[in-house]
Automatic annotation (TrEMBL), chain A:
InterPro entries: CRISPR-assoc_Cas1, CRISPR-assoc_Cas1_C, CRISPR-assoc_Cas1_HMARI/TNEAP, CRISPR-assoc_Cas1_N
Any one GO molecular-function label of the UniProt entry: endonuclease activity
UniProt keyword tRNA processing, yes or no: no
HAMAP family: Cas1
Name this protein carries in UniProt: CRISPR-associated endonuclease Cas1
Oligomeric form and interacting partners: Homodimer, forms a heterotetramer with a Cas2 homodimer.
Catalytic activity, EC: 3.1.-.-
UniProt organism field: Persephonella atlantica
UniProtKB/TrEMBL annotation, chain B:
Assembly and oligomerization: Homodimer, forms a heterotetramer with a Cas1 homodimer.
HAMAP family referenced in this protein's UniProt entry, alphabetically: Cas2
UniProt keywords, alphabetically: Antiviral defense, Endonuclease, Hydrolase, Magnesium, Metal-binding, Nuclease
EC number annotated for this UniProt entry: 3.1.-.-
Origin species: Persephonella atlantica
Gene behind the chain: cas2
Functional note: CRISPR (clustered regularly interspaced short palindromic repeat), is an adaptive immune system that provides protection against mobile genetic elements (viruses, transposable elements and conjugative plasmids). CRISPR clusters contain sequences complementary to antecedent mobile elements and target invading nucleic acids. CRISPR clusters are transcribed and processed into CRISPR RNA (crRNA). Functions as a ssRNA-specific endoribonuclease. Involved in the integration of spacer DNA into the CRISPR cassette.
UniProt-recorded name of the protein: CRISPR-associated endoribonuclease Cas2
Cofactor(s) annotated in UniProt: Mg(2+)
InterPro entries, per the entry: CRISPR_associated_Cas2, Virulence_VapD/CRISPR_Cas2
Binding site for Mg(2+): D8
Coiled coil spans: none
Length: 331, 88
């Protein structure tokens, strides 16, 4: 019900009358009903004060900041309101026991690969001869997941598979402006890389928002190393959802010609989306998240909710109620 | 659930009612609000309104739609905010 708000204009975010108000530079005011907001994504230049942060804390609204190029730079993450020492201990326990950690890490990779194959199989219908070799190669590689005995080599294998998968994008995408040579980040070196980077930024924060709604601690991840700096559980879960959400949004935007070269910053080699481009992408991304699918015996579930369900599956795993099985798209 | 809320309130209290509504719904006209809201949150909103309203003088109407399938908003003249706006 609550929705995410994206701020692109420069301006001030204020607390007024116990709700939020956004004042644009041209003095135009917009009231944001505080009870209808789940999270705020900030792309423009925003002024805010401590009073707003306090108010956001009491309403449990996280704020995510992105830099000029649309990269995630950080978040204001309200003090944990769902605080559970129990679950942190469990999470840590599973992290410290090598075989438990490997099991979860492999589950994430397994889920990612299965969803990647689903995507490729979807396009196999129309482009069988081109896409088949990719599918076969990825299937071959995925057999090695089970054999890996430590995290770095598992990560390497996952990277390998993803590289092959990105190469298959050249077959899937119909439009010559968008092609894949190699994955480049910081900065992405062509428009397709820019789309992938931007999409990944968005999925990381979307998952973080969902984790925040559970007792799980995003700081403890399994496939991605837990460290002193960043959240990593959301990166783990993102592996599963990138093919299902981000990549599908990219395919449809490009193949339907909704995103074009004019939506990129020309003067820096089309390496970044411009504001219009970002908005088109976000609109499609939000639409995707709100799409509902029939899921098991739960009736209709949106993709956003599906992410949260994935968190609850981890709960059950940690408490020994049910072994974790990653979400795999079944269509 | 999608709702449209309209009110007629005595001037003395209209400010207070407006302030309450804008915590939950998007103001689209003077005394008209719209937005998505859950059953539970709507109940909280109604309780807050009842605290302030004088039931002999004031009136609040809430139109509820289970889905937005049968809803189409046409606007003429200057553009007013919508609850569907994603970008600010």
């Amino acid at each position: 019900m609550k929705k995410a708000i994206y701020i692109f204009n420069d301006g001030q975010l204020k607390r007024k009358d116990n709700t939020l108000i956004f004042i644009k530079e041209n003095e135009e005011k917009r009231v944001i009903p505080v009870n209808a907001v789940s999270e705020i994504h900030v792309f423009g230049e925003l002024d805010l004060n401590k009073r707003v942060l306090e108010f956001l804390t009491s309403n449990k609204i996280p704020v995510y900041f992105y830099n000029y190029y649309g990269y995630y730079i950080g978040s204001y993450y309200p003090r944990d309101h769902l605080n559970s020492g129990m679950i942190i201990l469990k999470q840590a326990q599973f992290y410290l026991k090598k075989e438990e950690r490997m099991f979860l890490a492999k589950s994430f990779v397994y889920g990612a690969v299965a969803n990647i194959l689903k995507n490729l199989n979807y396009y196999k219908k129309s482009k069988e001869e081109y896409i088949k070799p990719f599918i076969e190669e990825i299937e071959e590689k995925s057999k090695e997941i089970d054999k890996k005995e430590d995290i770095p080599s598992l990560m390497a294998l996952e990277g390998d598979i993803r590289k092959k998968y990105y190469e298959a994008f050249n077959v899937i995408l119909n439009i010559g402006d968008f092609f894949f040579d190699k994955r480049t980040k910081r900065p992405p070196e062509n428009p397709l890389n820019a789309l992938i980077s931007f999409g990944n930024s968005l999925i990381y924060t979307t998952i973080l928002s969902q984790i925040y709604r559970t007792h799980l601690d995003p700081r403890i991840g399994y496939l991605h190393e837990t460290n002193h700096r960043s959240f990593s559980l959301n990166l783990d879960l993102a592996e599963i959802f990138k093919p299902v959400i981000v990549d599908r949004v990219i395919f449809s935007l490009i193949n339907k010609n909704q995103i074009q070269l004019k939506h990129f910053e020309e003067d820096i080699d089309f390496a970044y989306l411009n504001e219009k481009g970002k908005q088109i992408f976000i609109r499609a991304f939000e639409e995707k998240l709100n799409t509902t699918i029939k899921y098991k015996n739960l009736g209709k579930v949106s993709y956003r909710k599906l992410i949260r369900l994935e968190c609850y599956k981890l709960y059950k795993h940690f408490f020994g109620e049910q072994i974790y099985q990653p979400f795999i798209a079944n269509w | 659930m999608f709702v449209i809320l309209v009110y007629d309130i005595n001037e003395k209290r209209v400010q207070k009612i407006h302030k309450i509504c804008k915590k939950y719904l998007t103001p689209v006209q003077n005394s008209v609000f719209e937005g998505n809201i859950t059953q539970a949150t709507l109940r909280i909103l109604k309780d807050e309104l009842k605290e302030i309203m004088d039931e002999n003088e004031d009136s609040v109407l809430i139109y509820k739609f289970r889905t937005k399938k049968y809803y189409d908003r046409e606007s003429i003249g200057i553009k007013k905010p919508s609850h569907e706006d994603l970008f600010l």
